[in-house]
Amino acid sequence: MKFIDTHCHVTLENFDEDREDLLKIMEEELEFFIEVAIDMKSSEYLYQYSKNFKNGFITVGVHPTETENFNYDSIEQLKLFLPCEKVIAIGEIGLDFHWDTDRNKQYKALEMQLELAKNYDIPVIFHVRDAYKEMYDFLNKSKFSDLKGVVHCFSGNYEIAKKFLNLGYYLGFDGPITYPKNEELRETIKNIPIDRILFETDSPFLPPKPFRGKRNDPLKVSYVYEKAADVLNINIEELKSIVFQNAKKLFDI
Q1: Which CA distances in Å does 213 have to 98, 129, 185?
Q2: I need a labelling partner for 190 at 20 to 30 A (CA). Which of 46, 105, 159, 248 fits?
Q3: In angstroms, what is the C-alpha Rg of the chain?
Q4: 98 labelled ligand-binding
Q5: In degrees, to the nearest 5, what angle opens at C-alpha 7 toward C-alphas 160 and 178?
Q6: 9 annotated as a binding-site residue
Q7: Coil, helix or strand for 55?
Q8: Which residues make Cβ contacts (< 8 Å) with residue 215, sequence separation at least 6?
Q9: Are 62 and 38 in contact (CB under 8 A)?
Q10: Is 152 part of any known ligand binding site?
Q11: Residue pLDDT, tens place only, 150-173
């Protein structure tokens, strides 16, 4: 079985010079990948471009730091994309308190997009940065606690992980698990149920250790698998099969 990358951004300008060549290699080397939208523009672009992905799926949605102009018209536009068979999730959505953006607008956009996901019975991909407590509290107290989804690029400790796992969410892990100083993150992986783990690249961001400072790409997800297999003391072929089944179950692929 081949690797899968459940979160990447190969349609960003970082790949303009070699995107088509990269996609051809990805067709051969990956079982499948998920290209994730970050705003209304990329959502529409992915909707139009997804026919070029022979083994790729897409999401539509608006990143929390891009919610300044998000409104009900945005929701109506997102609804138009959902019938596309390539659309398998709403994302990436969530809360990001690292940057100085309007938190009230983040919450409002999050609530509206979660309502959309609930109405259409589609999974969500969460982006959470410097806001794990706030995100958990919101989900735990809201009518959306029973949605299916994944906390993308998880970077918290085991105590934080347990809270989201108890709500039924999966956790996505990326290149940072290969960084020498991230022992706590590797301990988190070691202690959570293996049937709730997904692996991603978030490319072009967060390259694994051998490529720090360089552009990341979905093919480098293999380094994430290799480190995780070592941490979990499991055969990498078995790990690939488990993660493949996890992704199929969550995203109904």
Answers
A1: 21, 21, 21
A2: 248
A3: 17
A4: no
A5: 60
A6: yes
A7: coil
A8: 14, 203, 204, 207
A9: yes
A10: yes
A11: 999 999 999 999 999 999 999 999
The residues pairing with 4 across neighbouring beta strands, listed in sequence order, are 32
Q: In degrees, to the nearest 5, what angle opens at C-alpha 126 toward C-alphas 136 and 132?
A: 30
DSSP summary character for residue 63: -
- β-bridge mates for residue 94, sequence order: 127
Length of the chain: 253
SS3 95: strand
Is 127 annotated as a binding-site member? yes
Domain 3-251, CATH class in plain words = alpha beta
Residue 63 in marked binding region:
no
What are the start-end ranges of the H helices in the chain? 19-29, 40-49, 72-81, 103-120, 132-141, 158-166, 183-191, 221-232, 236-251
Dig out the tokens for 120 from the structure: 């259409």
> Taking a C-beta distance cutoff of 8 angstroms, is the pair 9, 34 a contact?
no
- Whether 145 has a pLDDT exceeding 80, the answer reads no
Q: 47-106 pLDDT, tens per residue?
A: 999 999 999 999 999 999 999 999 999 999 999 999 999 999 999 999 999 998 899 999
Alpha carbons 59 and 7: distance in angstroms, whole number: 10
- Domain-wise residue ranges, the chain: 3-251
